Protein backbone atom coordinates (compact mmCIF):
# COMPACT_ATOMS: atom_id res chain seq x y z
CA UNK A 1 0.00 0.00 0.00
CA UNK A 2 1.53 3.26 -1.17
CA UNK A 3 0.65 6.66 0.22
CA UNK A 4 1.00 8.33 -3.18
CA UNK A 5 1.43 7.08 -6.74
CA UNK A 6 2.48 9.26 -9.69
CA UNK A 7 1.42 7.44 -12.87
CA UNK A 8 3.02 7.66 -16.30
CA UNK A 9 5.09 10.80 -15.90
CA UNK A 10 7.92 11.70 -18.26
CA UNK A 11 11.16 12.18 -16.33
CA UNK A 12 13.75 14.83 -17.34
CA UNK A 13 15.86 12.17 -19.12
CA UNK A 14 12.90 11.31 -21.37
CA UNK A 15 12.00 7.99 -19.75
CA UNK A 16 8.42 7.28 -18.68
CA UNK A 17 7.86 5.88 -15.22
CA UNK A 18 5.52 5.46 -12.28
CA UNK A 19 6.78 6.75 -8.93
CA UNK A 20 5.61 5.17 -5.69
CA UNK A 21 5.86 7.10 -2.42
CA UNK A 22 5.53 5.92 1.15
CA UNK A 23 5.83 8.47 3.92
CA UNK A 24 8.45 11.00 2.84
CA UNK A 25 10.46 8.58 0.68
CA UNK A 26 10.34 7.38 -2.92
CA UNK A 27 10.01 3.63 -2.50
CA UNK A 28 9.68 2.51 -6.12
CA UNK A 29 10.37 3.83 -9.62
CA UNK A 30 9.39 1.54 -12.49
CA UNK A 31 7.79 1.58 -15.96
CA UNK A 32 4.62 0.36 -14.30
CA UNK A 33 3.72 -0.02 -10.64
CA UNK A 34 0.75 -2.24 -9.85
CA UNK A 35 -0.17 -1.20 -6.34
CA UNK A 36 -2.94 0.50 -4.46
CA UNK A 37 -2.30 3.97 -3.12
CA UNK A 38 -3.95 6.47 -0.86
CA UNK A 39 -3.86 8.92 -3.77
CA UNK A 40 -2.96 8.56 -7.44
CA UNK A 41 -1.89 11.43 -9.69
CA UNK A 42 -2.23 10.77 -13.41
CA UNK A 43 0.79 12.38 -15.06
CA UNK A 44 0.67 10.74 -18.49
CA UNK A 45 2.25 13.12 -21.01
CA UNK A 46 3.41 15.51 -18.28
CA UNK A 47 6.93 16.22 -17.05
CA UNK A 48 7.74 14.99 -13.57
CA UNK A 49 10.89 16.61 -12.20
CA UNK A 50 12.68 16.93 -8.90
CA UNK A 51 11.83 20.22 -7.20
CA UNK A 52 13.33 23.52 -8.26
CA UNK A 53 16.22 24.83 -6.19
CA UNK A 54 17.39 28.42 -5.72
CA UNK A 55 20.98 28.70 -4.41
CA UNK A 56 21.04 32.49 -4.15
CA UNK A 57 18.32 34.70 -2.65
CA UNK A 58 17.79 37.59 -0.20
CA UNK A 59 14.72 36.62 1.79
CA UNK A 60 15.18 39.25 4.50
CA UNK A 61 14.52 41.93 1.87
CA UNK A 62 11.94 40.20 -0.32
CA UNK A 63 8.57 41.80 -1.11
CA UNK A 64 9.77 45.16 0.24
CA UNK A 65 9.79 47.01 -3.10
CA UNK A 66 9.17 50.74 -2.62
CA UNK A 67 10.35 50.74 1.00
CA UNK A 68 11.60 53.19 2.07
CA UNK A 69 11.30 54.40 -1.57
CA UNK A 70 11.86 53.16 -5.11
CA UNK A 71 15.40 52.67 -6.43
CA UNK A 72 15.37 55.62 -8.87
CA UNK A 73 18.75 54.94 -10.50
CA UNK A 74 18.27 51.17 -10.71
CA UNK A 75 21.85 50.64 -9.55
CA UNK A 76 23.31 48.10 -7.16
CA UNK A 77 24.73 50.80 -4.93
CA UNK A 78 21.43 52.66 -4.52
CA UNK A 79 19.79 49.33 -3.70
CA UNK A 80 22.36 48.69 -0.98
CA UNK A 81 21.78 52.18 0.40
CA UNK A 82 18.00 51.71 0.46
CA UNK A 83 18.35 48.36 2.17
CA UNK A 84 20.63 49.97 4.74
CA UNK A 85 17.74 52.24 5.70
CA UNK A 86 15.08 49.55 5.57
CA UNK A 87 16.92 47.04 7.76
CA UNK A 88 16.91 49.59 10.60
CA UNK A 89 13.15 50.08 10.30
CA UNK A 90 11.89 46.56 9.59
CA UNK A 91 10.84 44.49 12.57
CA UNK A 92 11.36 40.76 12.96
CA UNK A 93 7.61 40.34 12.40
CA UNK A 94 7.78 42.36 9.16
CA UNK A 95 10.55 40.21 7.75
CA UNK A 96 8.96 36.95 8.88
CA UNK A 97 5.62 37.83 7.30
CA UNK A 98 7.15 38.88 3.99
CA UNK A 99 9.39 35.82 3.89
CA UNK A 100 6.54 33.41 4.65
CA UNK A 101 4.44 34.99 1.89
CA UNK A 102 7.33 34.46 -0.51
CA UNK A 103 7.67 30.86 0.65
CA UNK A 104 3.98 30.38 -0.23
CA UNK A 105 4.80 31.59 -3.73
CA UNK A 106 7.82 29.32 -3.90
CA UNK A 107 5.86 26.27 -2.77
CA UNK A 108 3.22 26.88 -5.45
CA UNK A 109 6.02 27.01 -8.07
CA UNK A 110 7.67 23.79 -6.91
CA UNK A 111 10.63 25.69 -5.47
CA UNK A 112 11.38 23.58 -2.40
CA UNK A 113 14.99 24.43 -1.55
CA UNK A 114 16.38 27.96 -1.14
CA UNK A 115 19.70 29.35 0.03
CA UNK A 116 19.18 32.87 1.33
CA UNK A 117 21.81 35.40 2.31
CA UNK A 118 20.96 37.16 5.57
CA UNK A 119 22.48 40.56 6.32
CA UNK A 120 24.66 40.38 9.44
CA UNK A 121 25.79 44.03 9.35
CA UNK A 122 23.55 45.57 12.07
CA UNK A 123 24.28 44.75 15.69
CA UNK A 124 20.60 43.94 16.31
CA UNK A 125 20.72 40.98 13.88
CA UNK A 126 16.94 41.13 13.50
CA UNK A 127 17.24 39.67 10.02
CA UNK A 128 19.04 36.63 11.38
CA UNK A 129 16.44 36.17 14.12
CA UNK A 130 13.65 36.45 11.52
CA UNK A 131 15.16 34.01 9.03
CA UNK A 132 15.88 31.43 11.74
CA UNK A 133 12.18 31.63 12.62
CA UNK A 134 11.20 31.23 8.97
CA UNK A 135 13.56 28.26 8.52
CA UNK A 136 11.81 26.49 11.37
CA UNK A 137 8.34 27.41 10.12
CA UNK A 138 8.85 26.02 6.59
CA UNK A 139 11.04 23.00 7.37
CA UNK A 140 8.29 20.50 6.53
CA UNK A 141 8.12 21.64 2.91
CA UNK A 142 11.09 23.92 2.06
CA UNK A 143 14.76 23.29 2.82
CA UNK A 144 16.03 26.76 3.75
CA UNK A 145 19.77 27.38 4.07
CA UNK A 146 20.96 30.62 5.64
CA UNK A 147 24.17 32.44 4.67
CA UNK A 148 25.81 34.87 7.11
CA UNK A 149 26.25 37.83 4.77
CA UNK A 150 28.11 40.98 5.90
CA UNK A 151 26.39 43.23 3.34
CA UNK A 152 28.50 46.29 4.18
CA UNK A 153 31.77 44.36 4.29
CA UNK A 154 33.40 42.06 6.83
CA UNK A 155 35.95 44.76 7.71
CA UNK A 156 34.33 47.89 6.32
CA UNK A 157 31.30 47.64 8.63
CA UNK A 158 31.76 48.32 12.32
CA UNK A 159 31.53 44.98 14.15
CA UNK A 160 31.19 43.26 10.76
CA UNK A 161 33.33 40.27 11.67
CA UNK A 162 31.96 39.98 15.21
CA UNK A 163 28.36 40.01 13.97
CA UNK A 164 29.07 37.34 11.33
CA UNK A 165 30.48 35.10 14.07
CA UNK A 166 27.45 35.80 16.24
CA UNK A 167 25.14 34.80 13.38
CA UNK A 168 27.00 31.52 12.85
CA UNK A 169 26.78 30.84 16.59
CA UNK A 170 23.01 31.42 16.37
CA UNK A 171 22.72 28.61 13.82
CA UNK A 172 23.28 30.15 10.39
CA UNK A 173 24.50 27.46 7.97
CA UNK A 174 26.94 29.02 5.47
CA UNK A 175 29.76 31.59 5.56
CA UNK A 176 29.26 34.54 3.21
CA UNK A 177 31.19 37.64 2.20
CA UNK A 178 31.47 40.55 -0.23
CA UNK A 179 35.18 41.26 -0.86
CA UNK A 180 34.66 43.81 -3.65
CA UNK A 181 32.75 46.04 -1.20
CA UNK A 182 35.65 46.32 1.24
CA UNK A 183 37.64 49.59 1.27
CA UNK A 184 40.52 48.20 -0.76
CA UNK A 185 41.44 45.23 -2.91
CA UNK A 186 43.84 44.19 -0.13
CA UNK A 187 41.07 44.21 2.47
CA UNK A 188 38.90 42.21 0.09
CA UNK A 189 41.55 39.54 -0.32
CA UNK A 190 42.18 39.44 3.43
CA UNK A 191 38.45 39.06 4.10
CA UNK A 192 38.46 35.94 1.93
CA UNK A 193 41.43 34.50 3.82
CA UNK A 194 39.57 35.15 7.07
CA UNK A 195 36.20 33.80 5.89
CA UNK A 196 37.66 30.59 4.47
CA UNK A 197 39.55 30.00 7.73
CA UNK A 198 36.31 30.43 9.66
CA UNK A 199 34.50 27.99 7.37
CA UNK A 200 37.29 25.43 7.55
CA UNK A 201 37.42 25.61 11.34
CA UNK A 202 33.65 25.16 11.63
CA UNK A 203 33.21 22.63 8.81
CA UNK A 204 30.85 24.92 6.90
CA UNK A 205 30.21 25.78 3.27
CA UNK A 206 31.19 29.14 1.77
CA UNK A 207 29.14 31.33 -0.59
CA UNK A 208 30.70 34.65 -1.58
CA UNK A 209 29.18 37.62 -3.41
CA UNK A 210 32.26 37.72 -5.61
CA UNK A 211 33.20 40.46 -8.09
CA UNK A 212 29.65 41.74 -8.57
CA UNK A 213 30.98 44.69 -10.53
CA UNK A 214 31.76 45.86 -14.05
CA UNK A 215 35.41 46.43 -13.07
CA UNK A 216 37.59 43.90 -14.94
CA UNK A 217 40.33 44.36 -12.32
CA UNK A 218 38.09 43.01 -9.56
CA UNK A 219 39.67 39.57 -9.34
CA UNK A 220 38.65 38.26 -5.95
CA UNK A 221 37.58 34.98 -7.53
CA UNK A 222 41.31 34.27 -7.91
CA UNK A 223 41.85 34.77 -4.16
CA UNK A 224 38.77 32.69 -3.38
CA UNK A 225 40.16 29.81 -5.45
CA UNK A 226 43.54 30.11 -3.70
CA UNK A 227 41.97 30.03 -0.22
CA UNK A 228 39.66 27.17 -1.19
CA UNK A 229 42.69 25.06 -2.14
CA UNK A 230 44.69 26.20 0.90
CA UNK A 231 41.99 25.04 3.32
CA UNK A 232 40.85 21.94 1.41
CA UNK A 233 37.36 23.35 0.83
CA UNK A 234 36.94 21.95 -2.69
CA UNK A 235 33.28 21.25 -3.44
CA UNK A 236 32.09 23.41 -0.52
CA UNK A 237 32.56 26.89 -2.03
CA UNK A 238 30.43 28.95 -4.40
CA UNK A 239 31.22 32.23 -6.11
CA UNK A 240 27.99 34.14 -6.71
CA UNK A 241 27.57 36.68 -9.52
CA UNK A 242 31.18 36.79 -10.88
CA UNK A 243 30.07 39.60 -13.19
CA UNK A 244 33.51 41.19 -13.53
CA UNK A 245 34.41 38.21 -15.72
CA UNK A 246 32.22 39.69 -18.47
CA UNK A 247 34.76 42.52 -18.77
CA UNK A 248 38.03 40.69 -18.13
CA UNK A 249 40.83 40.25 -20.62
CA UNK A 250 40.47 36.95 -22.46
CA UNK A 251 44.05 35.89 -21.77
CA UNK A 252 43.59 36.35 -18.02
CA UNK A 253 40.32 34.43 -18.14
CA UNK A 254 42.10 31.58 -19.96
CA UNK A 255 44.20 31.14 -16.81
CA UNK A 256 41.38 31.84 -14.38
CA UNK A 257 38.89 29.24 -15.63
CA UNK A 258 41.19 26.23 -14.99
CA UNK A 259 41.95 27.62 -11.52
CA UNK A 260 38.25 27.83 -10.65
CA UNK A 261 37.79 24.25 -11.90
CA UNK A 262 40.82 23.01 -9.94
CA UNK A 263 39.45 24.56 -6.75
CA UNK A 264 36.06 22.91 -7.27
CA UNK A 265 34.28 26.24 -6.88
CA UNK A 266 30.68 26.41 -8.10
CA UNK A 267 29.42 29.50 -9.93
CA UNK A 268 26.02 31.09 -9.32
CA UNK A 269 25.07 33.74 -11.90
CA UNK A 270 21.77 35.53 -11.29
CA UNK A 271 20.63 36.52 -14.77
CA UNK A 272 17.48 38.50 -13.96
CA UNK A 273 19.34 40.75 -11.54
CA UNK A 274 22.80 40.79 -13.15
CA UNK A 275 21.51 42.13 -16.45
CA UNK A 276 19.41 44.77 -14.69
CA UNK A 277 22.04 46.09 -12.26
CA UNK A 278 25.26 45.76 -14.27
CA UNK A 279 26.32 47.98 -17.15
CA UNK A 280 24.51 51.01 -15.67
CA UNK A 281 27.57 53.20 -16.33
CA UNK A 282 27.87 52.08 -19.95
CA UNK A 283 26.57 54.05 -22.89
CA UNK A 284 27.07 51.81 -25.92
CA UNK A 285 28.04 49.09 -26.35
CA UNK A 286 26.33 48.12 -23.08
CA UNK A 287 27.58 45.00 -21.34
CA UNK A 288 25.17 42.15 -20.66
CA UNK A 289 26.14 41.86 -16.99
CA UNK A 290 26.36 38.07 -17.01
CA UNK A 291 29.44 36.00 -16.23
CA UNK A 292 30.96 33.57 -18.74
CA UNK A 293 28.49 30.76 -18.23
CA UNK A 294 29.25 28.59 -21.25
CA UNK A 295 33.00 28.87 -20.72
CA UNK A 296 32.67 27.87 -17.06
CA UNK A 297 30.54 24.88 -18.02
CA UNK A 298 33.07 23.86 -20.68
CA UNK A 299 35.75 23.70 -17.97
CA UNK A 300 33.64 21.37 -15.85
CA UNK A 301 32.58 23.99 -13.31
CA UNK A 302 29.21 23.41 -11.66
CA UNK A 303 27.04 26.38 -12.64
CA UNK A 304 23.55 27.03 -11.29
CA UNK A 305 21.12 29.85 -11.99
CA UNK A 306 20.04 31.93 -8.96
CA UNK A 307 16.97 34.12 -8.44
CA UNK A 308 18.67 36.69 -6.15
CA UNK A 309 15.79 39.14 -5.67
CA UNK A 310 12.02 39.44 -5.92
CA UNK A 311 10.30 42.81 -5.40
CA UNK A 312 12.99 44.42 -3.25
CA UNK A 313 15.34 47.46 -3.34
CA UNK A 314 17.37 45.91 -6.17
CA UNK A 315 14.68 44.40 -8.41
CA UNK A 316 11.15 45.58 -9.08
CA UNK A 317 9.80 42.33 -10.56
CA UNK A 318 9.95 38.58 -9.95
CA UNK A 319 7.59 35.72 -9.20
CA UNK A 320 9.53 33.01 -7.40
CA UNK A 321 9.56 30.87 -10.54
CA UNK A 322 12.99 29.38 -11.25
CA UNK A 323 11.90 28.71 -14.84
CA UNK A 324 11.74 32.49 -15.34
CA UNK A 325 15.33 32.65 -14.14
CA UNK A 326 16.49 29.84 -16.43
CA UNK A 327 14.56 31.32 -19.36
CA UNK A 328 16.36 34.66 -19.02
CA UNK A 329 19.71 32.98 -18.46
CA UNK A 330 19.23 30.84 -21.55
CA UNK A 331 18.73 33.97 -23.65
CA UNK A 332 21.50 36.13 -22.22
CA UNK A 333 24.05 33.29 -22.25
CA UNK A 334 22.88 32.34 -25.77
CA UNK A 335 22.29 28.74 -24.74
CA UNK A 336 19.76 27.87 -27.44
CA UNK A 337 20.98 24.51 -28.76
CA UNK A 338 18.62 21.74 -27.57
CA UNK A 339 21.37 20.30 -25.35
CA UNK A 340 22.08 23.74 -23.88
CA UNK A 341 18.41 24.41 -23.18
CA UNK A 342 18.15 21.09 -21.38
CA UNK A 343 21.27 22.11 -19.43
CA UNK A 344 19.49 25.29 -18.31
CA UNK A 345 16.72 23.16 -16.77
CA UNK A 346 19.34 21.06 -14.98
CA UNK A 347 20.88 24.31 -13.68
CA UNK A 348 17.73 25.11 -11.65
CA UNK A 349 17.31 21.53 -10.41
CA UNK A 350 20.19 19.07 -10.09
CA UNK A 351 23.07 21.55 -10.38
CA UNK A 352 21.63 23.84 -7.72
CA UNK A 353 20.93 20.87 -5.46
CA UNK A 354 24.59 19.88 -5.77
CA UNK A 355 25.71 23.43 -4.94
CA UNK A 356 23.59 23.42 -1.79
CA UNK A 357 24.71 19.90 -0.87
CA UNK A 358 21.15 18.60 -0.58
CA UNK A 359 20.86 15.01 0.62
CA UNK A 360 18.34 12.63 -0.94
CA UNK A 361 17.57 14.91 -3.86
CA UNK A 362 16.29 13.27 -7.04
CA UNK A 363 13.80 10.79 -8.42
CA UNK A 364 15.47 7.50 -7.51
CA UNK A 365 14.33 4.85 -5.07
CA UNK A 366 15.32 6.00 -1.61
CA UNK A 367 15.33 9.70 -2.46
CA UNK A 368 13.22 12.18 -0.57
CA UNK A 369 9.69 12.28 -1.98
CA UNK A 370 9.71 15.85 -3.26
CA UNK A 371 8.81 16.51 -6.88
CA UNK A 372 6.80 18.66 -9.25
CA UNK A 373 4.40 17.71 -12.08
CA UNK A 374 4.46 20.29 -14.88
CA UNK A 375 2.06 20.97 -17.75
CA UNK A 376 4.85 20.31 -20.27
CA UNK A 377 6.30 17.26 -21.96
CA UNK A 378 10.03 17.98 -21.69
CA UNK A 379 12.46 20.25 -19.84
CA UNK A 380 12.85 22.39 -22.96
CA UNK A 381 9.09 22.80 -23.30
CA UNK A 382 8.94 23.70 -19.61
CA UNK A 383 11.46 26.49 -20.24
CA UNK A 384 9.53 27.75 -23.24
CA UNK A 385 6.15 27.81 -21.49
CA UNK A 386 6.98 28.28 -17.80
CA UNK A 387 3.81 26.21 -17.36
CA UNK A 388 1.40 25.46 -14.55
CA UNK A 389 2.68 23.25 -11.74
CA UNK A 390 -0.11 20.68 -11.82
CA UNK A 391 1.02 19.18 -8.53
CA UNK A 392 3.81 19.90 -6.08
CA UNK A 393 4.82 17.15 -3.66
CA UNK A 394 6.99 18.09 -0.67
CA UNK A 395 8.36 15.29 1.52
CA UNK A 396 5.54 12.97 0.52
CA UNK A 397 2.64 15.41 0.81
CA UNK A 398 0.82 17.19 -2.03
CA UNK A 399 1.10 20.84 -1.02
CA UNK A 400 -0.06 22.62 -4.19
CA UNK A 401 -2.22 21.99 -7.25
CA UNK A 402 -2.87 24.13 -10.31
CA UNK A 403 -5.15 23.82 -13.34
CA UNK A 404 -3.73 23.43 -16.82
CA UNK A 405 -3.02 26.57 -18.76
CA UNK A 406 -5.45 25.94 -21.63
CA UNK A 407 -7.53 28.77 -23.07
CA UNK A 408 -11.05 28.63 -24.50
CA UNK A 409 -11.44 30.63 -27.71
CA UNK A 410 -14.40 31.57 -29.90
CA UNK A 411 -13.11 31.92 -33.46
CA UNK A 412 -15.19 30.53 -36.35
CA UNK A 413 -13.60 27.52 -37.97
CA UNK A 414 -10.92 27.12 -35.28
CA UNK A 415 -10.70 24.73 -32.31
CA UNK A 416 -12.48 25.82 -29.18
CA UNK A 417 -9.47 25.21 -26.97
CA UNK A 418 -5.85 26.35 -27.30
CA UNK A 419 -2.89 24.54 -25.79
CA UNK A 420 0.52 26.08 -26.35
CA UNK A 421 2.33 22.80 -25.83
CA UNK A 422 4.26 21.83 -28.93
CA UNK A 423 6.83 19.07 -28.99
CA UNK A 424 10.34 20.23 -29.89
CA UNK A 425 13.83 18.71 -29.62
CA UNK A 426 15.09 18.33 -26.06
Automatic annotation (TrEMBL):
Might you give the EC number(s) for this enzyme? 3.5.4.1
Keywords, comma-separated and alphabetical: Hydrolase
Top EC class, one word: hydrolase
Q: Pinpoint the Amidohydrolase domain residues.
A: 39-398
Family annotation (InterPro entries): Amidohydro_3 (IPR013108), Metal-dep_hydrolase_composite (IPR011059), Metal_Hydrolase (IPR032466), Metallo-hydrolase_Enzymes (IPR052349)
Location of region: Disordered:
406-426
Comp. bias (Basic residues): 417-426
- Keyword Hydrolase belongs to the record: yes
Q: Which Gene3D superfamilies match?
A: Metal-dependent hydrolases, Urease, subunit C, domain 1
User: Which domain of life does the UniProt lineage start with?
Assistant: Bacteria
SUPFAM superfamilies noted in UniProt = Composite domain of metallo-dependent hydrolases, Metallo-dependent hydrolases
- Residue spans making up a coiled coil are none
Task: Give the Gene Ontology MF terms in alphabetical order.
Answer: cytosine deaminase activity
State the NCBIfam families in the record.
Answer: PRK07572.1 (NF005748)
Q: What is this protein called?
A: Cytosine deaminase CodA
Q: Which organism is it from?
A: Phaeobacter inhibens
Amino acid sequence: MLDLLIKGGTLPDGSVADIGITGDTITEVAPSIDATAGETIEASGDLVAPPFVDPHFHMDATLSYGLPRVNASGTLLEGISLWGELREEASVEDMVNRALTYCDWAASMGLLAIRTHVDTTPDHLRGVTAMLEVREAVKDYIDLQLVAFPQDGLYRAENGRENLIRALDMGVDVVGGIPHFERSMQDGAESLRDLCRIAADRGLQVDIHCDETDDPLSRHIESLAQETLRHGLQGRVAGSHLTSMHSMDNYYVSKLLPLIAEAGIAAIPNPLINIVLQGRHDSFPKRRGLTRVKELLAHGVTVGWGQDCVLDPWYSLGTGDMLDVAFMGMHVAQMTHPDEMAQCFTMVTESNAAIMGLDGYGLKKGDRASLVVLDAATPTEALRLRPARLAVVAKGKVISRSARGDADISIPGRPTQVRRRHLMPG
